[in-house]
Amino acid sequence: MSLALVWFRHDLRLDDQPALRAALEAGHTPVPVYIHAPEEEGAWAPGAASDAWRHRSLQALQQELEQRGSALHVCTGPTDGALDRLLRRSGAQAVFWNRKYEPATQARDAALKRRLRESGVEVESFNGTLMFEPWDMATQSGGPYKVFTPFWKNAQANLRLPAPWTAPVRLPEPPTLDGHVSIDALGLQPRPRWDESFWEHWQPGEAGAHEALEIFIDGALNGYSEDRDRPDRIGTSRLSPHLHFGEIAVWRVVHALQQACTAANARHVDAYVRELGWREFAYHLLHHFPQTPNENLNPRFEHFNWARVDDAALRAWQQGRTGVPIVDAGLRELWATGYMHNRVRMIVASYLCKHLRYHWLEGARWFWDTLVDADLANNTLGWQWTAGTGADASPYFRVFNPVTQAQRFDPKAEYIARWVPELQALPVKERFAPWLSPELAQRLAPDYPRQPLVDLAEGREAALAAYAASKD
């Protein structure tokens, strides 16, 4: 039987695996391979939290393959040399992979495909990540979208999802190849092991992704429209890292939601699928505007007067010591779990970009290194949206008040109390802005900062003044 390399990347699953399925249906024995080459990711090589998740996800994939009679061949880059060696040692006639959409890897993959085909190797790539390829949607004038609502309206009208596909219980046994390394040898686990608390909250791998989907459908889905903005509740799917690493296909998620849809929960299903639409929009933007991970999409902000970064203040923000409880709670949740609730991400980002007036890249880089769901498309969209510099952005003059945001979305301050335990002794209403009750805060929360890094009113006014100056 002929052999085909099946190159795993951000598609660490067997069900709904287009590259694996294509190899099997073409009559090939799949040779599953993973090539570790982070240096080829350009300026945005994976961060530490992503690597920690990848370590466990690769282990889960390896175990799933072995249970089916196959194996994962792990090696290190450069990718072109690794593929050449694998083809030579295995005698494989084909290479199949699922596409990635980051600018650096898109260019690399295109060059690889051309070179391999010219050498006589069969090469095919597939969509294993999205409901739509980034180039599938266009405005009436043929250009890319910059506003979500018309993008999603067009997408919904053209939504044609593949049917779910379940991988065979047994896979053909691939040949044993020289040159493999262990997953441990990739050095993906942080040193020191600051990620250890993550795994109380997560189960990386395909089985964990399916379990998370089932838990969401049975529980949080049924109040999603309202509860998704409440960090004090279990109101979201927590599927984002599983989707990022391709441990579950987005179309399987949508099919499962559609099957679970009833008259009672239809609006919640629609709301969640719309959020998946934002993920699609982020990839659309990244493809058409590949400069945006490092540059403002809106050229108005090229000469915006961002404040000079004070290293001590930036560290205080990173460590959750800003003196603003909801901001600190979010950043401490991030450090402890590799995750931050989406509503809190917006509040935290607004505080950095508006009240401190630091460039959004300062926050984007921190999230990139500490989020287990760090995704270049979504990270870029989220930070530029909050900063007001990107597509369909929140206007720069919209400055989240972190106190009123906390009062609205964490009304009993339970999220604050969980992640900022030094405030637990304060009455609920004082937890939102302890600096307004200095004597009580000094007595009951002596270890918490006495004042925010920047006065909220003064920070807001400085941000609005900088914005007005940039318009002039």
From TrEMBL:
> How is its cofactor bound, per UniProt?
Binds 1 FAD per subunit.
Q: Which residues does the annotation list for site: Electron transfer via tryptophanyl radical?
A: W306, W360, W383
Pfam families according to UniProt: DNA_photolyase (PF00875), FAD_binding_7 (PF03441)
Which cofactors, by name? (6R)-5,10-methylene-5,6,7,8-tetrahydrofolate; FAD
Keywords, ordered alphabetically: Chromophore, FAD, Flavoprotein, Lyase
List ligand-binding residues for FAD.
Y224, T236, S237, R238, L239, S240, Y272, D373, A374, D375
Domain of life, per UniProt, equals Bacteria
> What Gene Ontology terms describe what this protein does at the molecular function level?
deoxyribodipyrimidine photo-lyase activity; DNA binding; FAD binding
Q: Say yes or no: keyword Lyase present.
A: yes
Q: Can you give the residue ranges of the Photolyase/cryptochrome alpha/beta domain?
A: 2-131
Which SUPFAM superfamilies does this chain map to? Cryptochrome/photolyase FAD-binding domain (SSF48173), Cryptochrome/photolyase, N-terminal domain (SSF52425)
Enumerate the Gene Ontology biological process terms. response to light stimulus
Q: Which family does it belong to?
A: Belongs to the DNA photolyase family.
The family database entries (PANTHER family) matched by this protein are listed as: CRYPTOCHROME (PTHR11455), CRYPTOCHROME CIRCADIAN CLOCK 5 ISOFORM X1 (PTHR11455:SF9)
Q: What is this protein called?
A: Deoxyribodipyrimidine photo-lyase type I
This chain's source organism reads Pseudoxanthomonas indica
